[in-house]
C-alpha cells in the first residue's frame, strides 16, 4: 500500500533523498529526518554532498569525507560529508582512463564528460546505495534529471562507438588498434554501475524522493519541472516538503508579514492543486536558523510527529 504520510514513507523505505533548489532547506530536512529516524531506533547514515554547508556545522562536530563518523550527541547516527571537489577527481580519473583509447581516435572533445561537481558527487554517493550496515540511508541531495542525463552521456557515445566497432567488421579492422577488450569491459562495468544506480533510484520499494520547496513562484515552477524530468528516468516523487511557511500566529496585523503570508497562501493553493497526488508537508519558518540536534528534533517533530 502507498504510504499516505511522511512518517509512513520514511519508515517504509531505506534510501531517502532530498532534492530542490539551493537554499530551500534540503540539508535541514535531511538531517532532521536522519535525527528523527535515529531517535526511533533505526541505525541511520546521513550522506551529505554539499561543498559549503557541511554536516559538521549542523551536528557541531567534525564529520569525515570518506570514513563514516559517529555522531556523538545522538545514538544510532553516523554521517559522511562527501567532498565534491575530491569526488570530481576520482570520477574524472576513472573516465579519462577508460576513454583514453577512444579519444586518441575521436579527439578528447567528443568524449569529454561535462563533469560538474554535482555529477561527481552523485557518482560517489551511488556507492552508499549498496549499504548493508544501516537500516536507513538519508541523502541530503537528490540527483536531478539533468545530472542523470549528463552522467549517461559518455555511455551513449562509447556504446555507439563500440557497437559500430563490433557490428562492422571492416571498421573493426581499421579501428583494430583501439579495440581493446579491457577498455570495452571497463566501460560495460561502468555502464552497469550507472544503470544499477538509476534502477535503485526508481525502485519504489526501497527509495523515496522528497522535493523541498518554498511557497513561491520560481521554486514551484522548478519543482514541477523536476518531477517531470525525474519521471523520464522512471523515478517517482512521492512527497514534497513546503518549507518556511510563515506561521499565522506571528502576523498580528503586521502588514509586511500579512502580505508575505498572502503571497505564500496563493502558492500553497497552487501547490495543493499541482501536486495533489503527493504527500505534502508544511514546515513553518522558525524564528532562528536550524542547527544542532535540539533544533533538528523540532523540525523532525513537524515532519513526522
Ligand atoms: N523552516 C526554517 N526556518 C528557519 N530557517 C530555516 C528553515 N529551513 C531552513 N532554514 C535555514 O535556511 C538555511 C538554508 O537551509 P539548508 O538546509 O542549508 O538549504 P539547502 O541544503 O537546500 O541549500 C539554513 O541556514 C537553515 O538553517
Ligand atoms: Mg544543502
How would you describe this structure to a colleague?
This protein is of the alpha/beta class and 305 residues long. It has a single domain (6-90, 93-304), classed as 3-Layer(aba) Sandwich (Rossmann fold). It contains twelve helices and eight strands. It has helices at 6-12, 26-39, 55-59, 84-106, 108-111, 117-125, 145-167, 169-174, 181-202, 217-231, 255-274, 292-304; strands spanning 15-19, 44-48, 69-70, 77-81, 136-139, 207-213, 239-245, 279-284. Strands 3-4-2-5-1-6-7-8 form an eight-stranded mixed beta sheet, sandwiched between helices. Strand 3 (69-70) and strand 4 form a beta hairpin. Helix 2 crosses helix 12 (292-304), helix 4 packs across helix 6 and helix 6 packs across helix 7. The longest helix has 23 residues, at 84-106. It is globular and about 75 Å long. The two termini are 21 Å apart. The model has no long low-confidence stretch (mean pLDDT 85). It binds adenosine-5'-diphosphate and magnesium ion. The site of adenosine-5'-diphosphate has 16 residues, from helix 2 and strand 7.
In short:
The protein has 305 residues and is an alpha/beta fold. The protein has helices at residues 6-12, 26-39, 55-59, 84-106, 108-111, 117-125, 145-167, 169-174, 181-202, 217-231, 255-274, 292-304; strands at 15-19, 44-48, 69-70, 77-81, 136-139, 207-213, 239-245, 279-284.
Amino acid at each position: 500500500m502507498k504510504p499516505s504520510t511522511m512518517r509512513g514513507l520514511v519508515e517504509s523505505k531505506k534510501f531517502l533523498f532530498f532534492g530542490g533548489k539551493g537554499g530551500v532547506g534540503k540539508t535541514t530536512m535531511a538531517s532532521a529526518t536522519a535525527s528523527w529516524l535515529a531517535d526511533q531506533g533505526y541505525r541511520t547514515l546521513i550522506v551529505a554532498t554539499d561543498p559549503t554547508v557541511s554536516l559538521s556545522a549542523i551536528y557541531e562536530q567534525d564529520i569525515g569525507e570518506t570514513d563514516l563518523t559517529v555522531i556523538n550527541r545522538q545514538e544510532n547516527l553516523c554521517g559522511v560529508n562527501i567532498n565534491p571537489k575530491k569526488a570530481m577527481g576520482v570520477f574524472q580519473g576513472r573516465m579519462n582512463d577508460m576513454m583514453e583509447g577512444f579519444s586518441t581516435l575521436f579527439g578528447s572533445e567528443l568524449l569529454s564528460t561535462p563533469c560538474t561537481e554535482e555529477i561527481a558527487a552523485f557518482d560517489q554517493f551511488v556507492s552508499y546505495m549498496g549499504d548493508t550496515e544501516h537500516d536507513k540511508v538519508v541523502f541530503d541531495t537528490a540527483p536531478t534529471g539533468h545530472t542523470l542525463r549528463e552522467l549517461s552521456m559518455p555511455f551513449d557515445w562509447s556504446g555507439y562507438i563500440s557497437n559500430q566497432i563490433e557490428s562492422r567488421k571492416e571498421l573493426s579492422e581499421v579501428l583494430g588498434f583501439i579495440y581493446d577488450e579491457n577498455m570495452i569491459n571497463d566501460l560495460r562495468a561502468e555502464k552497469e554501475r550507472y544503470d544499477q544506480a538509476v534502477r535503485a533510484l526508481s525502485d519504489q520499494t526501497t527509495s523515496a524522493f522528497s522535493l523541498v520547496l518554498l511557497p513561491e513562484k520560481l521554486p514551484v515552477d522548478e519543482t514541477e519541472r523536476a518531477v517531470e524530468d525525474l519521471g523520464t528516468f522512471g523515478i517517482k516523487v512521492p512527497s514534497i516538503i513546503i518549507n518556511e511557511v510563515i506561521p499565522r500566529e506571528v502576523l498580528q496585523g503586521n502588514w509586511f508579514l500579512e502580505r508575505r503570508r498572502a503571497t505564500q497562501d496563493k502558492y500553497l493553493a497552487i501547490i495543493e492543486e499541482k501536486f495533489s497526488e503527493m504527500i505534502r508537508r508544511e514546515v513553518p519558518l522558525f524564528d532562528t536558523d536550524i542547527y544542532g540536534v535540539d533544533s533538528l528534533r523540532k523540525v523532525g517533530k513537524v515532519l513526522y510527529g
